[in-house]
Amino acid sequence: MKARRQRRINAIVDKINNRIGNNTMRYFPDLSSFQSIYTEGDFIEWKIYQSVAAELFAHDLERLC
Predict the structure, then answer these.
(1) Which one of the record's GO molecular function terms can you name (predicted)?
(2) Which of 30, 38, 59, 65 has a Cα at 20 to 30 A from 1?
(3) Within its chain, how far is the Cα of 5 from the centroid?
(4) Would you give the distance in Å from CA 50 to the centre of its chain?
């Protein structure tokens, strides 16, 4: 039963990742690592976007389980 539940959760996580895209959840611990990828990007805006994406991910995961 536990293995079956784990497979179901993994399938849900894969489905959510495929829907929102893995790039959405990219993590940048500091400004310099962010600027190495996005040279003209707004770090604060990205952190807000990342937080919202993580919240949506968690909400969808809870709802689907």
Answers:
(1) DNA binding
(2) 59
(3) 21
(4) 7
